Each structure stands twice: as structure tokens, then as C-alpha cells.
User: Fold this.
Amino acid sequence: MTNQSADIALRDGRAQARLGQPLRFSAPPRRRWAPCAALLVGFLGFFCAAPVCQAINQESPEVLALVDKGLAYLEKQTHDEVGGKCLIALAFHKRGLSDTHPKIQEALAACRNGLQEEKQKSYDYGKCLAIIFLTELDADGNSDLINKYTEMMREHQKDHGGFGYISSTTGDTSQTQYAALAYWELLNHGITPDATGAQKCLKWLLRTQDVKGPWGYQGVDPGNSSRIEQPDRPDLSMAAAGMSGTLILGNAVGLLKAGAAEQAIPSLVEEQLPEALKRQDVKEKKVATLPAGDVNPQQLLEAVKSGSAWFDKNFKINLDMYQCYYLYSIERFKSFQEYLEGGEHENEPWYVQGYELLKKTQATDGSWNDQTGQPCATAFACLFLLRSTQKSIAATLGEGTLVGGRGLPRDLSKVKLRGGKLVVELKQSEMDNLLGMLDESDGKSEALDELLDNPAALKITDVGPEQARRMQQIVKTGPAAARLVAVKALGKLRSLDYAPTLIFALTDPDKRVVREARDALRSVSRNFEGFGPPDNFDNAERDQAVQRWKDWYHSVRPDAPPLP
Assistant:
């Protein structure tokens, strides 16, 4: 079977969402093809009959409110193990917070200092999460450390290809899904992983899929392509884990290609669509892949098709065990499914249902809980809400949005990969050009977006009185994106004259503006510890910080009029 055929079948075998088995940080006990006419009807029905509703996605204010409350809880928590610290740090990283954030630095220190301790762990979660975290943070700068964790991860791979406990001969689907993601992160951050290991891992997943479509926790390997019943809890959680691992590794070895399935929809469908709804030709993206070896493409397609069908038929969002772990597995599975199909979707039932469940179950202190414990469960919940895997795919491969959540520029020639992260190369903005951007009625422009993604392009040195007044007015009355850039610009001037405006910006409804104003005040005051507020502040912490900055300002300018 050709790779193109594989891509077509992937499209037709798409899963809808329900998932896999628990990630633990302490050793647990042992233990469509759819007809063309139907596709056309569904496609047109979306445009003609679907009710208008408010889209829910990772950028929705109500979603981010849950995330920020969860991160405020995590700022006061820690975890005993490297993997737990990395999981928590990933939640802050995916929220777009600075790499200097204490929780990110805590995880980085744990990765450096916990090598021997992690080597003694009988499971591979911590090793895989360290690889994922370190590659996303800075693959080049952390390459030596990443290689050490990669070597330790290999010790968990069995001869049959699955990953599991050191003392066990069986492969563990839950642990294998994290090894699969670690392989993919390495490959897509310029560190070539062991191709043979990736091939063996994928073949093990294909052999240990239950005859009905899901996967079991401890996979029973029949040793051939004849699938058998898996006795160890072939449930939604493990189905999600198996599907995500299969899609990830299928993509890594080049048999499942991103977007190609969408381009291969039978021409009959397009012939029946109105001209405005026909797709445009899309150039295939060049991405790094490993050799496929002797992985059977037909077997891979059958696994995707039957796994998707079983998942769709049995899906439910709430489970009795490992709820938040399950949600993150869903997000990982669905993100790779969307990527391979060539599109992203808002208001997907699995995401909306997950959001509604998390909204109902978040504790007053911001935490969630399941059998992984409150810190890990809360991190899993935040990663689900933020669409963590979708961000990883976009940031690594240059599609969709950057890790911070903002869009890529239309001119991709400006995008460069540095240290495993996408940056945008721009000419430094002059003051008149900047004010022109900020004066736009809705605060939206491609150039403004690029400045938000790459603040280094903003250079402000010579500002006249009229320009300064306009900038201060934008901080008070402009749209959110314009307010954010204006605060950045005033902060670069490092002048006490603008401190009152920056203190006012601490009261902004957009937390990004508040954090930027705080950092600008630290720069102006030359007090880099500053007076807060913390990254994930509540109203009381914000009010306290505002008062402390006011007191500071009056201490350095005692003759200044009182600040409102």
C-alpha cells in the first residue's frame, strides 16, 4: 500500500474522542471509510443547518479563567519527582509564561539534579516528561541533558518494542504513549531518535490492539499481526493512549502525513460542491521523518480505522478513575488527529464536554484531583484546556499558532527556528509606524501581531511629548493588543514620567497587560524583584501590588500629586 493510500484511509478512519489509561508518578500495583454522498450532506449541513453558537476554544476568556485559577494553585505546590515537576512546568510554559518563571526553573533544576534518582524509577513517565519539557524549553541548550534522559528511556523498551516497568516483560500502553511523544519531540526539535526503537514501538502498538479496536493496559503481544482480545482493562483511557501513540509514531516514520488526507478526498465530492467551498491546492510541507522500516502500512491503517470506530462508539467524557489524566490523553490524541487530517476545529464535543466537566469540578482553591494527586491532576487539566499538544505541533512545525497562542505571520519567510522555538525576524519598529498600528480602530494588524510575538523588534528611543501622550492614552482606552504593545513601549523608555500610567495599567482586565506593566515598573524602578503582583494573581494580590507601587512612586517623587 502506498503512503498516499495510507493518508486517504486515515481521513476516513477518523476518531471522535474518548480515551486511555492512567499516568502515575509512583509505581502502581501490577496488575470511515464514509460514502461521498454522506460526506457532502454532512459538510453542507454544517453550513446550512448548524445553530449559531459561541465557539469554545483554548483562547476563550472563560477557559483561560479556569486555567489561571489552576496555575495560581500550582504556584504554591510542588511534586516530589522530576516528572511531576516537569508536568507542572509544562502547564506554565503552555500558558505562555516566561521561561524564568519559578516553576519552570524548578523543573529545570530538578532535571539537572535528579538524574540518578530518576534512573532508579521502575517506570518511564518522568524520563519521558523530562525529554518533552527540555526539548520544548530549549532543545539546543539542553541537548546533553536530553540525551541522558533518552538513554534512560531506552532501558524501558522491551525486545518486543513496548515500553514498561523495568522489572516486567510486558509492555505498558500508558507508558508507551509518553515514549511515543518523546520520540516525536526529539525528531521535531532536531535530535534524531533511534529509528529502530520507534519502528519497534509502533509495531508493538499495532500487534497489541484489541480485536475490537481499543488497547489494554498491560498489552498481551500475540507475536504476529493476528489481533487477540486484550484482557487488561481495554477501556477508553487506554484506547486514547493507544491511538495517540499510533498516530504519533505513524507520523514520525512518515506513513501518516499531515494534511495529505484532506488533499486526497475523492474528486467526486469536490465536483458536487459549490465553487466557493472547493478546497485550494496546498503544497505539501517538508518535515523530518524517520524511516518506516518494515512497518506494515495496511496494518497501520486498519489500526487507525478500528480504533477510531471503537472510540466513537464508546465515548464518554467522565470516568471513575484518572479523570484529568484521561482528558490530557484525549487532547493529545485529538490534536494529532486534527493535524494529520489537515485542520483544526472549534466547539468539538470532546473539548466542550471536557471544559464543562472541569468547570464543574474545579475546587475553590483552583485545583482538580484524581488518582494522580492534586498537583498532577491540576496540571493535566490545564494542559487539556490549553490544547497543549496542538500548541506543540503548531510551534514545532510552523502551523497555526505559536506557543504563546498568537498567530504566525502570513510571510513565513520571517519565521526562523531557534533553540527549538519559532521566532519572527522583523525590522525594529519606529515610533511613527508603531503609533500608526496602535491607532487602528480595532487594534488588529499583522504587524501588531508580529510585535506581540517578537517584542525584541520593538525599539523605542526618541519620543516626543505628543507621541508620549498618545501612547499613554492608548494604555487607558485602546484595544487589548494595542494596550499591551503600548505598555511594552513605555517600559522600554525606563522613565519615571510614565510610572503613573504603568501603575494604572496594573488594573487592566487583561492579565497579559498587567504582567507587562509589572515588568516595566521593575525596569523603571531598577528593582527587579519589584512589588508584584505574581503571574497568576487574584484581585487581592493585584490591589496590594498597586498600593505598593504607588507608595514607591511617592517615595521617589514626594511632590507628585496623589495617584488615583
In short: The longest strand covers residues 415-418.
